[in-house]
Every structure is written in structure tokens, then in C-alpha cells.
Amino acid sequence: MEGKRSTYRTLFPVTKKSIYLNNAAESPLNTRVHQRLKEYLQLVAEEPQNKPEVRTPLRQQLSSIFGGAADEYALVTSTGIGINIVASGYQWRDGDNVVVPIDEHWNNTFPWLALRERGVEVRLVEVGEDQRVNLDKIASMVDENTRILSTAAVRFNTGFRADLRSLSEIAHAKGALLMVDGIQGAGVFPIEVVDDGIDILACGGFKWLLGMHGTGFLYISQKAQEKINPVLPGMFSAESNLRELHYFPDARKYETGTIAYSLFHAWTAGLELLQEIGIANIHTQVLKLTDRIIVGLRSKNIAITTPVEFVNERSGIISFTMGSEAANQRCFEKLSKHNVIVSLRGSQVRVSPNFFNAEEEMDRFLELL
Both 215 and 285 in a single domain? Predict the structure, then answer.
């Protein structure tokens, strides 16, 4: 990747107008995805009968990136839809509980909280002042009545990276499933559903996976499928029998009707780019950039709120605070004025570079602080 970095950078027109350090919010559209989108739209305009088939190739591509079988992948439009399908479709019984770290993203919180209306106990695990999700605390909350342990691969506000393999062991020891909200991790570092012990993985495509809003997937292992009923029956979830409902015997049963084929087809170019570069290589580059940020923030005595002591807990997100919400707001406004794009998340400023960013951009960002 080292020799091709400038070439990959040219694929992102955003770099001509700003220092874009907001990849945890959304990926800027790259030229390969844009071109594939235009090709699809051109076909729709001139030869709609010749549109390419999207669903099967994309499932195969996702399985080659994240592992598992292609027929364990359903195409969904967002992380939230994927998690809701699982929360709504699980065969809950009296006394069941679900365990979730507290203050996860809305999409990995609201679907579970809604289950309280169905009598499911929702156990929220406190996070330490160091912003780490403590494995011992998780283990103390998981018992024989826990059906799902749901966690983000990476916490959206602090960038803390979860130990998925250890969480899987905790869940499986009690017969529970491990569900992962993968949107802030997939595409930043390698995730392998089988090796990591992930039973269910929900992820949108518009962040680190280089797609656009409206794309995503839901991986459900064959074992987990036995416990989760489909909840959105439609023409793509079952056989074409209009007298009886026969769901497909794989993850397709969690799909429903038509999706935005143009967006999903374009997304394949983004996934191809990730495969071309190698997600492990992307992780190495992102760590190098965030290392530079960490050193710079420390040299300025700016408080970093992301746990950064251990590399295995690091992601593509670094959050910090200037000391108060007002000071963070001023910092955000100054950066925006100088075309440095970051996010405000609660009482923190969030920075999230990706492989197309340059080290000089990190220096400029730090200089403005």
C-alpha cells in the first residue's frame, strides 16, 4: 500500500477541498463507487432489462471478506434494520434477558430497550471511567437466561475496540449468542465471523466499508438462524408460492422486498477497493495516523478520552476534549472554518482518519488546535 497511497488518495475528491477526518460519520464517495453507480444508472436509462444481478454476487463478496457462508448473509439497508430483525425475531420466552454495554449507539440500544414491553429483561453493563468495556463486568451479567450478548465492535463515541473473541467465549459459555454492531469496525481492522466467534453481525455500508447510505448486511450463522424467526416476509424471503409461505432455508428469509439496487451494485466497487488494499494494511495505516494524533494531543496537554494504551483496543477513532462543551464547540467551529472536518459527539471532539489521509493532514489538524 505504501507505494500506492497517493494513487488511492486520488480516488477521493474530498481531499481536494478539505482535510476529511470524519470517516466514522460516513465515507466520502470515491470515484470507483461513483463510476459504478453511473454505469448502473446508464443501464436503467437505456437497457433496464439488462441490469446486473446484485444480491448473489454481493453476498459472495461479503462472505469472502468476513468469512462464513454466502447463504448466511442477508442484505439490509442499515445496521439498525439488521439489529431490529434479530431483536424482533428471536424466540423470546419468560425469564429471558439480553446483555448490552451501557450507552451503545442508538441502533444497538433502542431495539433491546423496546423488548422490555415484551417482558425481556435488558441488562445494561456500566462502562468504566476509563471508557473500557470490562470483560469481568460483562461476564457477571451473563447467565443461563441470557439469550443474546450484543456489543459494538467499536464504540461510536470513544473508539474503544471490543475483544470480540473473549466476549464470544463469555456468551457461548452460557449458551447465549454474540451479536455485533460492526459499523465502526468493519473495514478498519479484520473481522472474521468464524474465528471471532460472532453469531450475528449487523453492519451498514456507508462508513468504513466505502458504500453509501441505504446499504448494509446482516450475517446470521446457520446455528443462530434456528433461533430467529423472519419478521419481514416479502418476495425475496420465500419461495414463489402465493398459497403457502415457504421461507428460504438460509439467511435470505430475513430479507423482504426490493432494495436500492443501484446503491448496492455501486457498493461492490468499494468492497473491491478494500480487498485490493487489504484491510490489515488499512489497519496499519490508520494506526500510524492515529499514533501521530495521539502524540500531538499529548504534547499539547489535551485530554484524550479514547483508551489508547493498548493497540488491540484501538480503532480508527480518537476522541478528546478541550475541557468543556463550550471549548469543544469553539474547537469544532475553528476546524470547520479551516476545512478540517471532524465530529462533535456529546462532550467530545471525534477524529477519524482513513487510509487515504496523509500524515501532513494530521499535522495541520494539530496545528489548528
Answer: no
